[in-house]
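Input set for joint prediction.
Command: fold jointly, output tokens.
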Amino acid sequence: MEANIRTFKDFLQMYNLLSHTCFKRCIDNLNSRNLDSNEVKCVDDCSEKFIRLNHRFMAIYVEHQQSLVNKRIKEAEMAAESAKVEVEENSTNTLGISEHKPVPESQVPVG
Amino acid sequence: MAQTEQQKLQLIQDLEIEMMADMYNRLTSACHKKCIPPHYSDAEIAKGEAVCLDRCVAKFLDIHERIGKKLGQLSMQDEELLKKK
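tokens >
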């Protein structure tokens, strides 16, 4: 239901954009009130091309999006791996420090 | 149930009004650009500009309707294709 309305909204927005774009591209003079045959043909071609373009963009986008997502996942995995290693190193370090610390402390009273 | 149906209808109507406003804004900006040259010696709309605006709006609406019909046809075709599958 929500998705349907979203789709409808996208459709209407696309419709407005399509009209606007093809108007800008096909109407270069306003010598008459009616569309002449050239303008009609231009508008028809323009709108069809726009739709094909939309489909093509979507196909290309999906393709690239997929590889982008894969890359991001790989990067996240690498980051998680290195973070894990760092944590492990840190924990061994703190252990090492706590083992070393008593030595100078015990030395202080003696000195 | 009846209320959600009504809400849905309201939502769709609101959307259509919003999109009509968007279309109107696009129309005015496109025709402004096409008909009003950017040198202002007079605040009045000149006769030629008025004629241009009139034709421009007529053509824009013509194109909008043409494309609307085309999109309607295409979506009908799509639906039929989906039904067949």
